[in-house]
UniProtKB/TrEMBL annotation:
<dbReference type="InterPro" id="IPR036188">
    <property type="entry name" value="FAD/NAD-bd_sf"/>
</dbReference>
<comment type="similarity">
    <text>Belongs to the DadA oxidoreductase family.</text>
</comment>
<feature type="domain" description="FAD dependent oxidoreductase">
    <location>
        <begin position="4"/>
        <end position="397"/>
    </location>
</feature>
<protein>
    <submittedName>
        <fullName>D-amino acid dehydrogenase</fullName>
        <ecNumber>1.4.99.-</ecNumber>
    </submittedName>
</protein>
<dbReference type="GO" id="GO:0016491">
    <property type="term" value="F:oxidoreductase activity"/>
</dbReference>
<dbReference type="Pfam" id="PF01266">
    <property type="entry name" value="DAO"/>
</dbReference>
<dbReference type="InterPro" id="IPR006076">
    <property type="entry name" value="FAD-dep_OxRdtase"/>
</dbReference>
<keyword id="KW-0560">Oxidoreductase</keyword>
Amino acid sequence: MQQVIVIGGGVVGLTSAWWLLEAGYRVTLLERAPGVGTGTSYSNGGQLSYRYVSPLADAGVPLKALTWLFQEHGPLRFRPQLDPHQWRWLAAFLANCRADLNRKTTNKLLELGELSRRAMAALAPAVPLDAFEWRDAGKLVVYRTRTAFDAATAKPDTAGTRQVWSAAECVAREPALAALEDKLAGGIYNGGEAVADCYAFCVALADRIGAHPRFDGFVHGEAQRFVTSRARVIGLQTSDGPLAADAYVLAAGMQSRALGESAGISLPIYPLKGYSLTAPIRQDDVAPEISVTDFERKVLYARIGDKLRVAAMVDMVGEDLSLNPKRLDSLTRQVKEAMPRAADYTRITPWAGLRPATPNSAPIIGATPYANLWLNVGHGPLGFTFACGTASLLADLMRGKAPPFALDGLTLG
């Protein structure tokens, strides 16, 4: 029976470990933090958007990005750095800003999203949905401008599930949007999309992993570098000493880039810093029941249990996790204007996380030049959405089983 070391205790690493255990491997999980799910998985947007998988790179985005940089409440901030990773990623991102490439990537992510939806459902007997506040909320994307709304409705409805709503219909079905009614051109609703608490999911899944008969334990230490020989990884150096196994899975978020470089592998991922606000919902508050995305502002609203989670913004500032007061103040003002009665905004808990994104928004799954080193990285803002799907794909690939669809655009290379 093969022994695998999974590097990373966030939602991607944990799901990878579970699917490998279920596939018959023995697994050790290495996580640098004292607990699981405390990095990018901790306080993310909480949306499981299987059908709304719009890659950031698209025709017209570079011009929009320049506009956002000069907006007071713009969704994008860019701080140029003497960092070759930043400039290489930007060059690759710009090369992907084409309508044809966007359509191709979107179609592939829709396949991955459907696989992920089914994989999450298959996990429910082991990790009950109520253990992490899962709720079939549906997803409503609202548009402030007629141009953006018309462009969205002109796109084909590949899943055959969307509903196009006027501004009045958006408010009728989601009263939390009442303050925005005169500012909206309309909205597009998709059923079957969910919201949940990603951190609670990680904790619940970690408990099940810990009880699995083939699990060899959690190791809490910093992965430092791979030791390689003749196209194989022969060891992993950590702050807790050397570790060795038959195979290794790299699923460590942004840390994956430096670890890949230690083995000569260049991973095209860059940290897109995002912010979230969490506020308690009081008895008389009018919080959204539907998961809502404000398209132009790039702000996401999700009711998770008795709390409102708001996630937004992309800061390209390197691996800086500090809470920027100006960005938080800007987001708080936008939230109060959009949904003034949705939660107790005097008790907001702010958070920031680094989303490890690829230039085309597609994760990287599968083999490397080393026969026993595997990847599950680069999920960007859709780590929770895609984690179960990419974990099931990874387990198939490691066993030599054919994936359920072609993985072009989802592998290293």
